[in-house]
Inverse folding.
């Protein structure tokens, strides 16, 4: 179908541009030159108090008419699970790759188009719930993550302010006793971490968190988890906890991704960081699971016209550096990053396992509340 064709074309464009040139930082100096804005930060006025009452500021929400990208499913897939009773707040990754601004304009057509298709590939993990909310926001441009310039932090603050406002609108729409799942990828997870620290930890909302999927961005167990107010998910049937991992081949080079985290990690903490590695195939911290346990990896076909679910394509082993190793790495097409970096496939590699993980943790929350 035309929509699926456009989805995979846009998906691959994102993987090629943001992956080979940017996410891999190959080399990092050229990435900074090619993606970091040269001008000063442009302060933008806060959105109106009720801005997120406007459906146009949402990529997905349950009352959306027409095509809802969060409801997408791969060709031939039929859910067999009962509906999951939880509301999901998902923050999409960076889709603004230009250097014209430090933050994406809300009406940037390219960023919005790619954000919509990426929502299909990532937030669809959670669509056993019909209550998925994915906000548009003035995201920091990719270049804001490869420089230590003060404008980068200002760009992050702008992006966070929008998402925090969207989160308030999301919470206001939920019954007071309904469980909540927070999820993101890459920049989205960077923001989810801050959202947990500043708006949820130590508040009554914390008791409503069934799980937080902070995928594609590192979580330090010493510096981050205490401030986030939730423990790491140590068991597959545990609720109220954090899942986090970054995907690399067994021989992949993780140094650059770790450096990117440390650039914005803040002061304090241990000299030797301890990164959380959640195993998506076991639902536990650390450990190893063979590829035979991975029965649903989301793979685009050769013509980029549809997606299929592959079996036994990637195992999951937590390495000593806190990253997730997936073996030699499956053939996902020509867009796997140099250095064995499968960052853009963090969700796709374990699409089916994450769906099951989501259902289990929400069920566990309901048993104890």
């Amino acid at each position: 179908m035309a929509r699926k064709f456009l989805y995979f074309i846009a998906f691959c464009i994102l993987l090629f541009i943001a992956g080979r040139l940017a996410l891999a930082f190959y080399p990092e100096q050229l990435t900074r030159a090619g993606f970091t804005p040269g001008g000063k930060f442009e302060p933008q006025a806060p959105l109106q108090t009720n801005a997120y009452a406007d459906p146009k500021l949402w990529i997905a929400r349950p009352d959306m008419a027409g095509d809802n990208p969060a409801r997408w499913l791969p060709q031939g897939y039929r859910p067999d699970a009962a509906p999951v009773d939880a509301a999901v707040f998902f923050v999409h990754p960076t889709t603004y790759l230009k250097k014209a601004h430090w933050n994406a304009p809300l009406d940037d057509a390219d960023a919005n188009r790619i954000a919509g298709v990426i929502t299909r590939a990532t937030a669809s993990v959670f669509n056993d719930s019909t209550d998925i909310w994915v906000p548009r926001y003035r995201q920091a441009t990719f270049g804001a993550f490869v420089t230590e310039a003060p404008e980068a932090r200002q760009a992050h603050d702008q992006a966070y302010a929008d998402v925090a406002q969207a989160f308030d609108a999301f919470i206001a729409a939920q019954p007071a006793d309904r469980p909540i799942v927070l999820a993101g990828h890459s920049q989205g997870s960077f923001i989810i971490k801050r959202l947990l620290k500043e708006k949820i930890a130590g508040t009554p909302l914390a008791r409503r968190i069934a799980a937080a999927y902070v995928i594609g961005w590192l979580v330090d167990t010493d510096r981050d988890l205490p401030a986030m107010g939730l423990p790491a998910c140590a068991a597959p049937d545990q609720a109220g906890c954090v899942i986090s991992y970054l995907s690399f081949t067994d021989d992949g080079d993780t140094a650059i991704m770790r450096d990117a985290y440390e650039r914005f990690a803040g002061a304090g903490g241990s000299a030797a960081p301890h990164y959380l590695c959640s195993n998506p195939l076991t639902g536990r911290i650390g450990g190893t699971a063979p590829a035979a346990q991975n029965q649903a990896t989301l793979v685009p076909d050769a013509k980029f016209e549809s997606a299929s679910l592959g079996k036994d394509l990637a195992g999951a082993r937590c390495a000593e550096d806190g990253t997730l190793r997936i073996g030699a790495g499956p053939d996902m097409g020509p867009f796997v990053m140099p250095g064995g970096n499968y960052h853009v496939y963090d969700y796709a590699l374990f699409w089916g396992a994450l769906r099951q993980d989501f259902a289990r943790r929400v069920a566990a929350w309901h048993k104890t509340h």
